[in-house]
Amino acid sequence: MSAYYKFRQEELPTVAKFLYQYYYRDIIVFRDFSNEFDEGFATRYLNKIAHVDNLVNPITLTSELKKVTEDMTANMYVIRPVISQVQLYAQMASKDLKIEYKDFGCQQALKESRHKNVEGLAKWVHVILQNITNNQDVLSAKGFKDELGEKLQSIIQEIQAANQLQNQKMEERKQLVSNNLRELDELWVMMQKISRTGRVLFNYKDPRKKKDYMLSTLVKKVRSGNKPKEVKHTETTPPAPASTPQSIQKEPVQEPQQAEQRETVESTDLQFKEQ
What we know:
With 275 residues, this protein is mainly alpha-helical. Helices cover 70% and strands 0% of the residues. The protein is built from 13 helices and no strands.
């Protein structure tokens, strides 16, 4: 499997969108530096982002995975009061149980439920069900009804089925990506090209902008939950590059605050289209 700096595969499209946001902002500088950064490059880059995004975050599969995860999580909450009721019956009958009350399994099952550990929860619920069977008479004497045990068994079966389906959907998504690693690699090459060029172009000219192209900065943005601006072209072509170096020299030097305001205005000219 290819390595993409410190990024996970599913993070690549988001990182790529951040890079495009900065690339478009500075596109005049890029194009003045090399004709490799022409309109065709921008088009190929955006198309590649959209394609990879569909691979690592397929809409239908992602929606199905979200639904099954939500259902499973809801049931892991629903099961807690049922376990708590069984726990109370076991506590009431503790002197007559064939095992120690602390070994009945309720406390352990509740803990696993809070931690959303399906395997651990299933293990201890099955222990509880076995202990209910082994201590049926003394529990019934305290008011325990078979319906409560049946309800517990039904919920844990739903949770296990959802967990199995969740694992299946995750494997499908993993396989989809695995079958298309070449697409991710091609996007990564383009991302590296933008990142490397941007760092060189602004290393001395504008260190603040250079930081935008650093992969370490992008890691922090993605992991902190930041999202790139949702942008798309409002015109068929980005701003044309300067025709001569002199045209760049004539541009007045801006104060940091003014430059920041200009970037804000320019960034609003774009809006990524959802794929």
